[in-house]
Amino acid sequence: MRFEFFIAARYLRAKRRQAVVGVITAISVIGVAAGVASLIIALAITNGMRRDLQERLVGSTSHVDLMRVAGDGIRDWRSLLERLRGVPHVVAAAPGLYGQVLISKGARSGGGLVKGVIPADEKTVGDLLQNVVQGSASALEPLARRATPCADGTGPRNDCGSAVSREIPPIVIGQDMADTLGAKVGDGVLVTSPQGELTPLGLVPKYERFQVAGIFKSGFYQYDSSYAFLRLADAQSLFSEPDLISVISFKVDDLYHADRVGRVIEDAAGKGFQTTNWMEQNRELFRALKLEQVVTFIVLALIVCVAALNILIALTMMVMEKTRDIAVLMSFGVRADQVRRIFLMQGLLISVIGTVLGLILGYGLSWLGGHYRFIRLDAAVYSIDYLPFAPRVWDAVIVAAVSLGVSLIATIYPSVSAAKVLPAEALRYE
């Protein structure tokens, strides 16, 4: 063991002649631990929010969407769809027809965004139809495809939950929308489209009755409260757009290169088309999360700075308490730079102990929060219904470096003061 480290550790373990020095030292350790733990937990929360929102956004929607620049829809889409499926890095593609509607059941109603889909294709680019918790999305399939068992093996899929009438077209809605409407599987809902029909009395909204075939739950409020799915043909009939789609959705092999693949798809589609990707659609959200992470780090790092000030005070008082001991050591031949290193190592020991305790506490609480999800959130406000935690190793490296660096800066003044002690002056009256 180095001489300086041995003396520094001995000073920390020794009984204090001034109890306040020991109290301030303990407070310094606790302060560093609290600051480090707070930083780890805060970064774990922001990382968890970013991760969960990204996973749900990317899982629930496509990576790239192709639309007409003029916004008048895509005709002759079948040949275009087959051609674009061969674009490099494209894993899957699916047609869709979007439209804003009013969905009502009795006196209850709510606005929604319906999407006409071909279920077999839609499931390859998004997960919403695979997250059906009541009923089944198989009612959206052609009749020939429905004679497959339910997930629980109880019978044909069109018999999962309540049977779907052949006369009334099916609809699959989100869990929060179902709660708003008070709708259950098998209930009828009225879907009203503002893209109405022109009559002698003027433009009259078009409405059609649908039967709830399934209810999905993605855990993402934006989708669960406003999304609904129809068969593509039923959506075209509702919006009076025969054989027209509004978007072709794509899934790519690397979601972080969606912008690059989107440009290739745009070029392959030809003039009059444009693409958007999941990063562009949610840029402001992820930018806000990044800014929140930076601000949180700066604010909580002040706790470590306060703990560093306690270290400075504790070491300064210890230098005053140990002035005679320092003078004796220097009279025995200990150099000034060795005395300086003794107090530098003493501050480093306080910082290391506090940092290790803080990392253990921070990662322990983050693991408990992520595993048991005991902090619930309002999904209508935060888009997810629990507080996620995602601690990363890299965060521990950054937090530990900041903690140790700030603490070492705080030890400079007292260690330099200790090295300036003059043995003859200190021992004059001993």
TrEMBL record:
Q: Which domain of life is it from?
A: Bacteria
Q: Name one Pfam family in it.
A: FtsX
Give all residue intervals belonging to the MacB-like periplasmic core domain.
25-261
Q: Could you list this entry's UniProt keywords, alphabetically sorted.
A: Cell membrane, Membrane, Transmembrane, Transmembrane helix
Membrane topology field: Multi-pass membrane protein
Q: Where in the cell is it found?
A: Cell membrane
The record's GO CC annotations read:
plasma membrane protein complex
GO BP terms: namely: lipoprotein localization to outer membrane
State which residue ranges cross the membrane: 20-45, 294-320, 341-365, 393-413
Q: Where does the protein principally reside?
A: membrane
ABC3 transporter permease C-terminal domain location is 298-420
Per its UniProt record, what PANTHER family does this chain match? LIPOPROTEIN-RELEASING SYSTEM TRANSMEMBRANE PROTEIN LOLE
Tell me the protein family, please: Belongs to the ABC-4 integral membrane protein family. LolC/E subfamily.
Instruction: Tell me the protein's name.
Output: ABC transporter permease
- Source organism of the structure: Tunturiibacter psychrotolerans
The opening ranks of the lineage are:
Bacteria, Pseudomonadati, Acidobacteriota, Terriglobia, Terriglobales
